[in-house]
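Hi R.,

Quick one: here's the Ribosomal RNA small subunit methyltransferase A sequence you asked about.
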Amino acid sequence: MNYKNRDESRVRAKKHLGQHFLKDLLAAQRIVDGLTGHQHYKQVLEIGPGMGVLTQYLITKPEFSTYVIEIDTESVAYLQKNYPELSPRIIEGDFLKFNPDEFFSEPFAIIGNFPYNISSQIFFRALQIRDRIPEIVCMLQKEVAQRIASPPGNKDYGILSVLLQAFYDIDYLITVPPGAFDPPPKVQSGVIRLRRNQVAALDCDEKLFFRVVKTAFNQRRKTLRNALKPIGEFPDHPLLTKRAEQLGVSEFVELTQIAQNLVGAGQ
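And here's the predicted structure, written out as tokens:
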């Protein structure tokens, strides 16, 4: 059954949930086609399916078993009515509080039109369970998507760029205009794909790595010698003459190794 021929009653978009329902079917198809099956996963979890515009294409892919997680009870009722074949795999809940062990015994991909107001939180949660998630395909605010995919040396490059690029290879796929949504957002949207790389663990204390990256970018206009003073007085090092946006993941790892000698691993 095609999305256009389903129940004509619509779910009301709720501002507090950051809902903007995608209505451009070509864009929806292209987002779903962004899934590559990287590292041979067989299960896919869609975050915030709403009225199922992505879901309708996901469930036609025999190589994947599709699950959805939705916090909006009205959307859950709509999905249960219009996608009865999906009903056993509709999870009513909040992804940020989601325990994958309750539903998945093997790696699973994530896909979705992420609510703009919690997209960063979704990524931080995904990082916590990154070894369970070989691939992510998602749509979010264009400037955030560009920031995540941006290489070092670019003004868009930031905290999420470093933290996600430490563990994922990232591609910017397409731009989606406001008119593709109901209601239309005030900004453009971007679709990115993240594929898990071969880094099992960083060669430094991970908690401190996150702290170094965040501290460095909190004062991104300063040289790292000054920006990192809240952590401690670093010994002379060529990296400290640069600014945060000039460093790649490996260089932040190197700074973290130095920081470990200052504050102790794990602090």
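The first helix runs from residue 25 to 33.

Cheers,
M.
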